[in-house]
Amino acid sequence: MTIKEKPKEYSHIEELVVEGKHAIAIQLINKFKEKGEYNLRDYLLYNLLECEILFQQGLWEDMFKLAEETYKESLELGDDFIAIDALFEMAEALIWLGEPIKYEHIIKQGNDLLKIKNQKHSLEYKQREAKLFYIEGFFCAWIKNDADQAMKNLEQSITLFESLKDKVGLTKSLLISSFVFGTLKGEADNAIKLTERSLALSEECNSKYLVGFSLLMMGVNYAFFKGDYDHSIKFFEQGLIKFKELNNKYNIAVTFSYIGSVYMSKGDLGKALEYAELGLALAKEVNNKLRIAENFVILASIYSFKGEIDSCIRFYEQSLKIFKDIDSKVGMATVFNNLAGVNRIIGDVERALECIESSIKLNNEIGNSWAVANNYDYLIQILIDKGDVSRAQKEIEKLEQLKNQINNEQINLLYLFDKALVLKISSRIRDRGKAEEILKQIIEDERVEYGITVEVLFNLCELLLTELSMTNELKVLEEINSYTAQLLDIAEKSNSFILFAEIYFLKAKLALLTLDVKNARRFLTQAQKIAERFTLNQLAAKIKLEHNNLREQLSMWEKIKKTDISLAERIKLTGVDTQMKQILRESTIISTQITKEKIKVHRERKVCLVCKGEILGYTYICQCDAVYCQNCAQALTDLENVCWVCNAPIDTSKPTKPYKEEKMEETDTTKYKFKK
User: Fold this and answer.
1) Tens digit of pLDDT for each residue in 27-68?
2) Picking from 82-96, 116-130, 250-264, which range would have the lowest pLDDT averaged per residue?
3) Distance (Å, rounded) from C-alpha 52 to C-alpha 17?
4) Which end of the chain, N or C, is more open, meaning fewer C-beta atoms within 10 Å of its C-beta?
């Protein structure tokens, strides 16, 4: 069929659909159908336009049903091109609905029918061929996460759409290509260039939907590949305006979820939870199973950061059930991998092992070697926890084979890291020395990602802690403190509050090893205030309990100062070795907040010296210019009533308090020098 054979009103209505003027377009389509002066071909063409409207509104099930109806009627008509168009509409809807098995059946029908036409040089054939390559590329990227196969299809679709001067088709192909380069290949610069081009093209063709989707992808690229959260939220908010105008509840839900993920990365877990729940509510309203499952994954991640593991596991299990129902192997593999990490944290090694083996099996079926390599990292650490060193060494060999196949810098470093972990648990001093050598080699490598750096530094601390208990040499403790200083520097630059809290908690116990009760209490206060400020509730409760215990043991630590108790005995008293092991189990969650890009865009802000949170309300400013939020100023007054920088009194109406005083006095906040 050619353009000339379409109804005279068709081009105008098609233009309205592209511009997102759906109400007017539907009104004109209904008016056309009500006249009854049309043939079946014209009727089906308008059905396909209605499918596009439903696509832009995110109503995939309705889109599929209408396309299916159109396909059946096209068979009666005998118009193969309309039949192919309807099958392609059905296939695209099924991708969004997350139904790969149905998709593969439908796309095969469309492909077979196109082959039968055998009109490769006709305009009609090229238009469908371009659409086929786009849909296949979309499926490989979105459902299979197969970057190479996705780009093979998308590059052909881009070439064809360019030759056809089809800006809408070209924009859609560029957007999915951006997803491939950003999410699947980790090439942020290429992803952003493609999204910028798609945004310009979508504005040229005045497509409200594609402008919104381009802004959504810009937000994703800036947030998760550049770490520029402020700009990403602006892009998301601009995209929301477009999606709300289109009444596209699906993409509104997606955008809310992404904003929630951004706030999670910023450490604002309260706002993260708020947006994630908004996204989930809308996903349920549109009854999109894939979106609901993905929202459960985001909620699980938020609760894992909060330390609320029961809630975290519950949401992962809910998402897993849906992924199984829709047969999403990618979704199942991701959740099993994450569940392995969570169960490792709570010490359920058997369940962790079961989950990671399931993830490896699924990723092998998908053919995602990159994901399998990352699975092996978890598997090796779980086997070490289990004490199965023999199998851990065998899995290291498999990871080495994968490393050689993939030939990727980060996988190479991951292999070295896991090799060091196996050496680290050896009873032989030579092996432990080799482990330390490899770990130091990794952190000196400029290519290493900051997430791995955090895990490496924690493991170096544990190695040295063992050495400290054996040698009783304070120089070893100095080296541990140098590594915790590096971790604090990363936390400062990346704004990672969970890392801040964990490090200050660790430093409190390290301070007790040198009987420095004053700094131990300061570090505990700081760790607790950070955890409370950023709703890390479980961690805050654990730190508070530790601080209460220390207050009750002040006299004991005063007596210890007069004895010759060894560092090894002090390590046992503080429990720092046990705490270090727990941190290592949690280090993967902690390290996911740290990216090189996030550190690049860090800017100085007006933050509280204690809790590291941005000060939005009242501020206490000391004479030395140290800045405290109201909450922390009150806490410091209760603790010792001195500024941590210059030791000047915070509340001048009260005396400074030595640490032997256990009774906490009430604070008169009116004496503070608060400034708005």
Assistant:
1) 998 988 887 767 889 899 999 999 999 999 888 889 999 999
2) 116-130
3) 7
4) C
- Give the number of other CB atoms < 10 A from CB of residue 288: 24
What is the C-alpha separation between 504 and 509, in angstroms, rounded? 9
Do the strands 619-621 and 674-675 form a parallel or antiparallel pair, or are they unpaired?
A: antiparallel
Q: Rounded distance, CA 515 to CA 493, Å?
A: 30
Provide the phi-psi class of 574: left if phi over 0, else alpha when psi is between -120 and 50, else beta.
Answer: alpha
Length of the chain, in residues: 676
CA distance 140 to 146: 5
For tokens 């500024």, name the residue. Answer: 643
Strand partners, 675: 619
**227 Cβ contact partners less than 8 Å away, ≥ 6 residues apart:** 265, 595, 596, 597, 598, 599, 600, 601
50-72 burial, b at 16+ Cβ within 10 Å, e below that, comes to bbbbbbbbbbbebbbebbbebbe
- Residue 445 has phi, psi (to 5 degrees) of -80, 120
- Phi and psi at 607, nearest 5°, equal -120, 150
> Which residues make Cβ contacts (< 8 Å) with residue 357, sequence separation at least 6?
379
pLDDT digits (tens, 9 = 90+) for 157-202: 999 999 999 999 999 999 999 999 887 777 878 999 999 999 999 9
Task: Evaluate whether 248 touches 241 at the Cβ level (below 8 Å).
Answer: no
Q: How far is CA 344 from CA 313, 381, 472, in A?
A: 12, 9, 31
Residue 87: its pLDDT value, please?
Answer: 97
Strand order in 674-675's β-sheet? 627-629, 619-621, 674-675
User: CA 612, CA 622: separation in Å to the nearest integer?
Assistant: 16
**Strand 674-675 and strand 627-629: pairing?**
unpaired
The residue ranges of every structural domain in the chain are 449-598, 619-675
Mean pLDDT throughout 85-97? 94
Query: Closest by alpha carbon to 634, among 590, 663, 672, 605?
Result: 672
* Digit-coded pLDDT (tens) for 265-281: 777 888 999 999 999 99
Q: pTM to 2 decimals? A: 0.74
Average pLDDT, the chain: 86
Helix (H, G, I), strand (E, B) or coil at 555: helix
Alpha helices in 118-185 (DSSP H): 123-142, 147-164, 167-179
The token pair at 657 is 């308090």
CB 266 within 8 A of CB 498: no
List CB contacts of 671: < 8 A, sequence separation 6 or more. Answer: 651, 652, 653, 654
Contacts of 292 (CB under 8 A, 6+ apart): 280, 283, 284, 322
User: 3-class DSSP state for residue 579?
Assistant: helix
Neighbours of 303 (CB within 10 A): 24
Please give the angle made by the CA atoms of 616, 621 and 624, to the nearest 5 degrees.
140
Phi, psi of 479 (to 5 degrees): -70, -40
Q: How far apart are CA 663 and CA 204, in angstroms?
A: 70
Q: Is the pLDDT of residue 295 over 90?
A: yes
